[in-house]
Design a protein that fits this description.
There is one protein chain. The protein contains 19 helices and 25 strands. The chain has 751 residues and is an alpha+beta fold.
């Protein structure tokens, strides 16, 4: 129903009786003309919108045609929206106004306005399809004030519906006349509003479709996945991602057989098989890009209708980098495993090296094994114990360590209960038989057997053993103890891979025990030897001195020096002197080994010292038919040494050279400067020393030929001890068949 308002604002069915223009005889003709013109404009508008490609221009043209047909000052469209508070607001969308009109309603702050804000709440009746029209003076006060403010004298408003929803308002104004709108005109305007609603719906639908297509195109092109629509492999459509993926331009892809893009024969067969079976499953194939570089892709496809025929659409993911990453990850895992194994091996080797160092620091194996227990914690155990079998067969705990210091006391207390253990009799027998015991997982039942002592159960509960390795300590094939390692609160467990390390640790510990035993035995033997030497030196020296003095007295009393008695006396005297020297050598070697060899060092002339040595040794060389010479460089003058001891060194070295140099050979003694030292060299032309004997040449009682009775192997050892007490060095260089050079150094005299 159309509502008309008289000047009093009341609803009636037409114009007031006193409106002469309303009853003008030409008015029906004018109204019909406007009605026909509006319908014609509606028809043209429908035609325009059907082929419209420029909505913004066409809507303004249509509004102009409708405005002119309705003989209006303005024709416009309001779009109605709701704000955040649910209040309706009118948004000025499009407007046409006659050439005589100088301004737009949108210029009068009407671009957007609240319906209630301008007192137009009554417009809500248009939501039911009703129109509002009439002269401004016939409208309610709020509406009249609104139109008078913008210079409108008459207006007609018809609702515009889009998809059965009130979209907005199509409005017409007459700014020159208090025009009354005929029902036929309003009906024609309503038809125009319906046409506009349809056009807006079509425009909205096209926009949505275009937006959807654009969004799909953008998403398709922006997607990392390639998309292809093909008919038996021939590409009908594709996205840019697919072209980029394989290195082609888009126009190169369209019409191309996709099977040619992947020249790998196996991949082509795989694709054809999935096409024939119409498979939806995801699978991988490999091939090459346009530039020949390899590519691995993941495919999935399904059938669909496209352009009136059944085709397949496929999605392609480039997984080359992922595959390369997976391969790199696998290689990295392998490398990390290798590195971890190497680091573990290095850590274990370092641990064993440190264990060997600790075990070698002392021959007191009880101390070193106690330290060893602490060395194993916490890297290889939460706690560790070392037990030795005593002489009476009992177990003595000589070392224990726990990662938690507060639990070391319970660990020591547990040693009192030998008969109760988490190892059963079979395990103990296995250990005593020299075999290792591995308990990878210790259960609660193993911790607290039914016959367990309450105190033992309490201690074991505190220690919480969860995994254990026990290895025997063996010496000479006999089990002498046990090394036990346990994991507890660290939630780690032993495996068979850990056995070699712990068994090697036990082997080294056993070796330390054996070395300690041997050292103890050697110490006892050395002590016995020293006691014997003391007895020999004390008990033989006085009788030898008496014999030597007696032989000297006999030589003085015998007149005939060539008599048998004289020769016998001289032999006795030489034998006594030789025995005296042997006793002195034994005492010197004892002092050297015990570190009690002393010297009386002072500044000594090298020339005088060498001259005295030559005078003492030349007769021996002459007797052996060996040429003995000496040489001193000009830059050598004095040394800081004990002259008697240096003479002893020279005597031992030259005497050793005389012993091994054949008749007709030569021995040269040379002295030269070597920095802040003086170097002595004794060079002979003897047979030389084999390389395998050189490391032993200065050893005590060592002789190259055990059958040689020309000495007892102490001379070179004593020479070494004397040189080292002086702070010098001694060494030998020798070539088989070319003789030997014995070197030793002595510090120069302080300036």
């Amino acid at each position: 129903m159309l509502l008309l308002f008289n000047p009093c604002g009341e609803v009636d069915g037409g114009a007031p009786d006193n409106d002469l223009s309303y009853r003008h005889p030409t008015r029906p003709i004018l109204m019909k003309h406007r009605h026909d013109a509006i319908l014609k404009a509606v028809y043209e508008a429908a035609f325009t919108f059907l082929r419209s490609t420029r909505w913004e221009e066409d809507i303004r043209v249509v509004l102009g045609q409708l405005g002119q047909a309705a003989d209006a000052s303005r024709a416009f469209l309001f779009e109605l929206t709701e704000d955040a508070n649910g209040l309706r607001r009118a948004k000025w969308r499009y407007e046409w106004y006659a050439p005589a009109i100088t301004h737009s309603l949108s210029d009068l702050s009407l671009a957007t306005f609240g319906i209630a804000e301008f007192g137009l709440e009554r417009w809500g009746i248009m939501a039911t399809g009703q129109a509002i029209h009439g002269p401004a003076h016939s409208l309610p006060d709020n509406e009249r004030h609104f139109f008078e403010r913008v210079g409108v004298r008459s207006a007609a408003f018809v609702p515009v519906f889009v998809e059965d929803e009130w979209w907005g308002v199509l409005g017409f104004t007459d700014d020159d006349d208090d025009r009354v709108w005929e029902q036929a005109e309003v009906d024609a305007l309503s038809a125009a509003a319906a046409t506009l609603g349809g056009a807006i719906f079509r425009h909205r639908t096209e926009d949505r479709l275009q937006e959807s297509e654009e969004r799909f195109r953008q998403l398709s092109d922006a997607a990392a996945e390639g998309v292809v629509i093909h008919d038996r492999g021939v590409v009908l459509a594709a996205n840019q991602s697919l072209a980029r993926m394989f290195g082609y331009e888009m126009d190169e892809m369209i019409g191309r057989n996709f099977l040619d893009v992947l020249p790998n024969a196996e991949s082509r067969e795989d694709i054809i098989r999935h096409m024939r079976t119409d498979s939806y499953e995801r699978y991988e194939v490999s091939g090459h890009r346009k530039d020949g570089t390899p590519i691995i892709v993941e495919l999935t496809g399904r059938s669909m209708m496209f352009g009136g025929r059944r085709v397949r659409v496929g999605t392609i993911n480039d997984i080359t980098k992922r595959k390369q990453g997976e391969e790199a990850s696998r290689n990295l895992i392998v490398e990390q495993a290798r590195r971890a194994a190497a680091e573990s091996a290095e850590h274990r080797a370092s641990f064993l090296a440190e264990a060997s160092r600790v075990l070698g620091t002392s021959f007191d194996y009880q101390t070193t094994l106690s330290t060893l227990a602490r060395l194993a914690v916490p890297d290889f155990a939460d706690y560790c114990t070392v037990d030795m079998i005593g002489e009476g067969g009992q177990l003595d705990r000589i070392g224990s360590a726990h990662v938690d210091p507060s639990k070391e006391e319970p660990l020591r207390q547990l040693a009192r209960f030998r008969e109760q253990s988490i190892m059963d009799e079979q395990h103990v027998a296995q250990l005593l038989a020299g075999e290792s015991v591995l308990l990878a997982e210790i259960t609660d039942g193993m911790l607290t057997p039914a016959d367990a002592d309450a105190e033992v159960a309490d201690i074991v509960a505190q220690l919480e053993p969860r995994s254990m390795i026990a290895v025997p300590l063996s010496v000479g094939g006999k089990v002498v103890g046990a090394l036990v390692l346990c994991w507890s609160t660290s939630d780690r467990h032993y495996s068979p891979d850990d056995l070699p390390l712990i068994e090697e640790l036990a082997r080294r510990a056993s070796l330390a025990v054996d070395n300690a035993r041997l050292y103890h035995e050697a110490t006892l033997a050395t002590r016995a030897r020293d006691e014997m030497l003391s007895v020999v030196a004390h008990d033989l020296r006085n009788p030898l001195n008496t014999i030597s003095m007696g032989a000297s007295s006999m030589l003085e009393d015998i007149r005939d020096s060539e008599s048998t008695a004289a020769r016998t006396a001289r032999i006795v005297k030489r034998a006594a002197e030789r025995m005296n020297r042997l006793i002195q050598d034994l005492l010197d070697i004892r002092r050297t080994e015990s570190g009690t060899l002393s010297i009386d060092a002072k500044n000594e002339s090298v020339a005088a010292l060498l001259g005295e040595a030559m005078e003492m040794l030349k007769p021996l060389a002459t007797t052996a038919s060996i040429d003995l010479t000496s040489e001193i460089t000009v830059d050598v003058s004095t040394i800081y040494a004990d002259s008697a001891r240096i003479l002893q060194v020279l005597s031992n070295l030259v005497g050793n050279a005389i012993k091994f140099t054949p008749r007709g050979g030569s021995i040269a003694v040379r002295v030269d400067a070597l920095g802040d030292e003086v170097r002595f060299v004794v060079r002979d032309t003897g047979p030389g020393i084999p390389p395998d004997q050189l490391p032993h040449i200065f050893g005590t009682f060592w002789q190259a030929n055990r059958k040689d009775r020309r000495g007892i192997g102490l001379g070179l050892a004593i020479a070494k001890g004397i040189v080292e007490v002086h702070g010098g060095r001694i060494w030998v260089e020798s070539t088989l068949g070319a003789g030997s050079d014995f070197y030793f150094t002595v510090p120069t005299a302080p300036s």
